[in-house]
Design a protein that fits this description.
The complex is a heterodimer of chains A (237) and B (299). With 237 residues, chain A is α/β, with parallel strands linked by helices. Chain A has helices at residues 42-49, 75-80, 97-106, 112-125, 141-153, 171-186, 227-236, and strands spanning 2-9, 19-26, 31-35, 57-62, 65-66, 82-85, 159-163, 190-194, 206-211, 214-219. Chain B is an alpha+beta fold. Chain B has two domains: 2-56 and 164-296, no CATH class; 61-157, Alpha-Beta Plaits (2-Layer Sandwich), CATH 3.30.70. A four-stranded antiparallel beta sheet of chain B has the order 2-3-1-4, with helices on both faces. In chain B, helix 2 runs antiparallel to helix 9 (271-296), helix 6 runs parallel beside helix 9 (271-296) and helix 8 (216-257) packs antiparallel against helix 9 (271-296). Classes of the chains: A alpha/beta (237), B alpha+beta (299). Chains A and B meet through helix 2 and helix 3 of A and helix 1 and helix 7 of B. The complex binds adenosine-5'-triphosphate and magnesium ion.
Chain lengths: 237, 299
C-alpha cells in the first residue's frame, strides 16, 4: 500500500535533511504508529504520503503510484483516497461543522443529498450529531479534532493519516479518538498515526520510531515494545 | 461522481464567493455599472446624432442632368441609377417640372421666364444616397459612377457639408471605440483585483480544499462564476440607470428641441446594443476573474 525506498527530504534552506534514507513498507490494513521526539520528521513523512511535499531523493509509492513522477493534475486523485487529520486540524473556522465535513465529498462531485447524509452520519459516529450547524471556530479543541477525523473518514479512504490526533486531549478523550481510529482500522482502512502520546503505544500496533529523520526502530505488531522505546517516548511526552 | 453534482457544488461555492465577496466585489460591480452606463450614454447620443445627421445627409441629393430625349430613355436611366449600390432612391423630374421649380426658385425674377417658350430644361434625376449606420456613403465615388452612365451630362453634388458630417461621424465612432476599450480595460483591472483580494482572503480555505482533493478547476470555477455574476449584475445595474436617465431626459429633450427640427425624440439605443452591453459585462467579469485566478491560485 505504502512503500518508501531510501527516501530523503531536505527543506529548502535547511542545513540538515528532515528525512534521511528512510525505507519502509506499510501493507494494506496495517495500523502503524510513527513515534519519536519533536522534530524527528513524523509530520514530514506523512506530508510526503499525501503529496504535500516531494521527496528530494528516493522513491515514494502509494497504492502503486510513484509520487515523484505524478503529474500535478493527478494529485487530487491520490488525495481523495487518503484521509488526513492534520496536527492543526485545518478546519474552515467560519463554516459549520457539517460544511467542513461535507467539503471532502463535495470536491469529489457527490450529489448534494448524499453529501449531507453521509457527512451528518459520520459526525454522529464521532459524537457531534448535536452540533452539525455550529461554526467550527466555536468548538473545543477535542471537538475540532473529531470534526477533522470525521472529514478524513467521510470519504471512506483506503488510507487514514493522522498527525497527533490526541495532541492536547486528556486521557479519556484521547481514548475516544483512539477508538475511532481502531474502528476505521477494523473496517479495513490502513491507518498511520504520528504521535508522541504513550497512551497510543503498545497493544497490537506496529511502531516505527524516528529520530533526526532516520528510522531507529521498527517494532512489528504483537511484539512487546522494548522498554527503550517506551521510555524514550515517555521522556519526550 | 457526477458532473451535474460537481457543477452544482461549484455553483454553490460561487454563490458563497459572491456573498462573502464584500467591498471589493461591490466596488467591481459598481465600476462595471459605471462603465455600462457611460458606454450606453455615449451610444445613445451617437444613435440620435446619427439620425439627425442622416436626415441632413439624405436631404442633400445628387442632381443628374441628362442629355437624352424622351421620357422612355430618361426612365430607363432612372431605373439604372436606382439599382446602383449606395443609392436609396432615384426620382425622375420632367423638363416641365424642372422649369416650374426653376421659376419658383427664382421668385419674382422667375416671372420673367414665364412664357419664354424657347427655354427648354433637360430631364433631371434626383438621387438620394444611402446614409447608413457605418458612416456616410462616399459621394465623390457615387457621383463619379453616376457620371459614367451614358446619357448623363452633368452631376451636381453638394459634397462639402456632407463630408464634414461624415468626418465628424467617423471621429465620434472612433472616439467611442477608444472610450469603450478604455472602459473595458479599467473594468478588467478592477474585477481582477477584486478577485485577487478574494483569493488572498480565502487563501486558507483554498489550500484546505486542495488538501482534501479539490482539482484546480473546482477551486477556480466558483471564483470565475462570481466574476460572471458580478459582470452581469454590474452591467444590468448600469443599464437600468441608463433607462431611468433616458426616460426622465427624453421628455425634457422633446420639449426643448421640438419646433426647430420638427418633433425631436431622444431615441434609446437599439435592443441589440443593450444585450451586447450585458454580454460585454459578462465577458469582462469572466476575463477579469480568470486573469487573477490563473495568476494567484498557485497555492
Ligand atoms: N516547512 C519547513 N521548512 C523548513 N524546515 C521544516 C519545515 N517543516 C519542518 N521542518 C524541519 O524538519 C524537521 C522535521 O519536522 P517535522 O515537522 O517533520 O517533525 P515532527 O516529528 O512532526 O515534530 P513534532 O512532533 O514537533 O510535530 C524539523 O527539524 C523541522 O524544523
Ligand atoms: Mg509534527
Amino acid at each position: 500500500m505504502i512503500e518508501l525506498f531510501h527516501v530523503s527530504l531536505r527543506y529548502p534552506g535547511a542545513d540538515r535533511p528532515a528525512l534521511d534514507d528512510v525505507t519502509l513498507e506499510i501493507r494494506k490494513g496495517e495500523f502503524v504508529l510513527f513515534a519519536g521526539p519533536s522534530g524527528a520528521g513524523k509530520t514530514s513523512l506523512l506530508r510526503l504520503l499525501f503529496c504535500a511535499e516531494t521527496a528530494t531523493g528516493g522513491q515514494v509509492l502509494v497504492g502503486g503510484r510513484n509520487l515523484a513522477r505524478l503529474k500535478p493534475t493527478r494529485v487530487p486523485e491520490v488525495r481523495r483516497n487518503i484521509g488526513v487529520v492534520f496536527q492543526d486540524f485545518k478546519l474552515l473556522p467560519e463554516h459549520s461543522v457539517l460544511d467542513n465535513v461535507a467539503l471532502a465529498l463535495e470536491v469529489q462531485g457527490r450529489r448534494f443529498e448524499e453529501v449531507q447524509e453521509r457527512a451528518a452520519g459520520v459526525l454522529k459516529q464521532v459524537g457531534l450529531g448535536h452540533k452539525l450547524h455550529q461554526p467550527a471556530e466555536r468548538l473545543s479543541g477535542g471537538e475540532q479534532q473529531r470534526v477533522a477525523i470525521a472529514r478524513a473518514l467521510v470519504v471512506e479512504p483506503a488510507i487514514l493519516l493522522c498527525d497527533e490526533p490526541t495532541g492536547n486531549l486528556d486521557a479519556e478523550r484521547a481514548q475516544g479518538i483512539l477508538e475511532l481510529l481502531v474502528t476505521a482500522h477494523v473496517r479495513g482502512t490502513t491507518v498511520v498515526v504520528a504521535t508522541h502520546d504513550p497512551a497510543l503505544l503498545g497493544g497490537s500496533r506496529r511502531v516505527v520510531r524516528l529520530e533526526d529523520g532516520r528510522i531507529v526502530a521498527d517494532v512489528p505488531a504483537f511484539a512487546p515494545l522494548p522498554a527503550a522505546i517506551l521510555d524514550a517516548t515517555r521522556r519526550v511526552a | 461522481m457526477s458532473t451535474v453534482a460537481l457543477v452544482s457544488s461549484m455553483v454553490r461555492h460561487g454563490g458563497r464567493s459572491v456573498r462573502s465577496g464584500g467591498l471589493p466585489f461591490f466596488f467591481a460591480m459598481l465600476m462595471t455599472a459605471l462603465g455600462a452606463f457611460s458606454i450606453g450614454s455615449y451610444a445613445t447620443l451617437l444613435v440620435n446624432f446619427q439620425r439627425v445627421a442622416s436626415t441632413v445627409g439624405e436631404s442633400v441629393a445628387l442632381v443628374l442632368f441628362l442629355n437624352v430625349e424622351g421620357a422612355v430613355a430618361a426612365e430607363e436611366l432612372r431605373a439604372r441609377a436606382a439599382l446602383m449600390p449606395d443609392v436609396r432612391e432615384a426620382a425622375l423630374i420632367t423638363p416641365e417640372q424642372a422649369l416650374a421649380r426653376a421659376r419658383r426658385g427664382l421668385g419674382d425674377a422667375g416671372r420673367a421666364l414665364e412664357g419664354s417658350a424657347g427655354l427648354t430644361m433637360p430631364w433631371v434625376i434626383e438621387v438620394t444616397p444611402r446614409f447608413d449606420l457605418a458612416g456616410a456613403t462616399d459621394r465623390e465615388a457615387l457621383a463619379k459612377r453616376l457620371r459614367e452612365l451614358p446619357g448623363v451630362d452633368e452631376v451636381m453634388h453638394p459634397g462639402g457639408e456632407v463630408k464634414r458630417v461624415d468626418a465628424l461621424m467617423r471621429l465620434l465612432h472612433g472616439a467611442g471605440a477608444f472610450l469603450g476599450v478604455l472602459i473595458a480595460l479599467v473594468v478588467i483591472v478592477v474585477v481582477s483585483n477584486a478577485t485577487k483580494l478574494t483569493v488572498l482572503q480565502r487563501r486558507e480555505e483554498i489550500a484546505i480544499m486542495k488538501l482534501v482533493g479539490a482539482t484546480d478547476l473546482f477551486v477556480q470555477t466558483p471564483l470565475v462564476l462570481a466574476g460572471l455574476v458580478q459582470g452581469v449584475l454590474g452591467a444590468a445595474l448600469g443599464l437600468v440607470a441608463l433607462a431611468l436617465a433616458h426616460a426622465s431626459l427624453a421628455s425634457v429633450v422633446k420639449v426643448a428641441l421640438s419646433g426647430a427640427l420638427g418633433t425631436f425624440v431622444l431615441e434609446p439605443m437599439p435592443p441589440w446594443l443593450w444585450a451586447a452591453l450585458v454580454c460585454g459585462g459578462a465577458v469582462l467579469g469572466v476575463a477579469g476573474a480568470a486573469l487573477s485566478v490563473r495568476r494567484f491560485l498557485r497555492v
